[in-house]
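From the methods appendix. Each design record in this collection lists the tokenized structure first, followed by the designed amino acid sequence. Records were kept in a plain field format so they could be parsed without special tools. The example shown here is representative of the layout used throughout.

RECORD:
FOLD TOKENS (328 positions):
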């Protein structure tokens, strides 16, 4: 059983990043059910409304671009969009015949984002103020490489990847996700090893992590977002499915830890909601990631942000290959 991932860099013009898997059917292949939109929407809505006991009340979901609507309705529109799209993609994956799963899933993704279906990832932008940024990733992992509970193993690797700073970034991890102001904070500079051989430990399922992810841009200063992360299952759904949920942690003036000032004590977006899904079916684990950020204005440097998102996708693919010993 081999996984062949063919990747080409984006070098001044659009080129194809293909993810191809060559697999032989496993005798322990299992069926799977899609991620139901109503169940996922219920979980995301509970968090967004500040009613989730793990995330607490200090969360700010992304807001839709229709400024005529109240904030609650704009947040509900984003959550519905995330839940419905994930149901559509996971339905295509779960319901397809084993030999057709990749093609069927890519066809479903292409209906919402041809670029993601072609390249594996994309970041697109909608609205002129308010605006949203929509980030997607799709990939497939051979289940046989991920052990008896393949979705949990794959999500463990994804959690470590999200927790570990990339070379151009500096992360800050709060020891207490519910009390940032009084929490101890660990500074995590990015390097070639910080997300590979010296990556952070895995996220413990059920525990909420608070991470401030920053990048310093010469002349412009620090650009940061502080977010809450949690790996969990989905009640009422396929027991094999695993989620990594992310929401923006709001930082009104004076709410952040005293270790931070200026740009580091502010978020560059005003809302964020995201769901990574790992769903095993047959010999594959589907990984689908959909996140939406919102801003009151229009994001600048959109092509650069899209290229950066694709680079992070390639980094994630490389970590999965290395951690699961998948031949390139």
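DESIGN:
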């Amino acid at each position: 059983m081999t996984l062949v991932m063919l990747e080409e860099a984006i070098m001044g013009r659009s080129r194809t990043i293909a993810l191809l898997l060559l697999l032989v059917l496993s005798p322990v292949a299992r069926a799977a059910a899609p991620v139901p939109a109503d169940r996922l929407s219920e979980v995301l809505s509970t968090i967004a409304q500040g009613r989730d006991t793990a995330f607490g009340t200090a969360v700010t979901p992304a807001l839709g671009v229709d400024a005529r609507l109240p904030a609650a309705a704009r947040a509900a529109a984003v959550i519905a969009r995330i839940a419905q799209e994930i149901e559509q993609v996971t339905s295509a994956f779960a319901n397809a015949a084993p030999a057709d799963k990749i093609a069927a899933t890519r066809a479903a993704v292409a209906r919402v984002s041809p670029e993601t279906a072609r390249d594996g990832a994309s970041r697109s932008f909608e609205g002129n103020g308010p605006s949203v940024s929509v980030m997607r990733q799709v990939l497939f992992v051979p289940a046989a490489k991920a052990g008896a509970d393949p979705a949990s193993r794959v999500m463990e690797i994804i959690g470590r990847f999200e927790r570990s700073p990339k070379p151009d970034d500096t992360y800050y991890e709060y020891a207490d996700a519910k009390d940032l102001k009084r929490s101890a904070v660990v500074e995590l500079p990015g390097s070639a090893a910080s997300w590979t051989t010296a990556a952070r430990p895995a996220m413990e399922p059920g525990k909420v992590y608070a991470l401030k992810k920053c990048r310093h841009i010469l002349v412009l200063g620090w650009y940061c977002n502080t977010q809450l992360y949690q790996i969990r299952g989905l009640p009422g759904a396929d027991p094999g499915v695993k989620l990594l949920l992310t929401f923006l942690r709001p930082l009104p003036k004076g709410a952040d830890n005293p270790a931070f000032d200026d740009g580091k004590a502010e978020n560059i977006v005003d809302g964020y909601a995201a769901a990574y899904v790992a769903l095993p079916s047959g010999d594959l684990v589907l990984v689908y990631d959909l996140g939406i950020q919102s801003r009151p204005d229009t994001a600048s440097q959109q092509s650069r942000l899209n290229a950066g998102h694709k680079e992070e996708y390639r980094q994630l693919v490389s970590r999965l290959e290395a951690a699961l010993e998948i031949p390139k």
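APPENDIX NOTE: The chain has one domain: 2-324.
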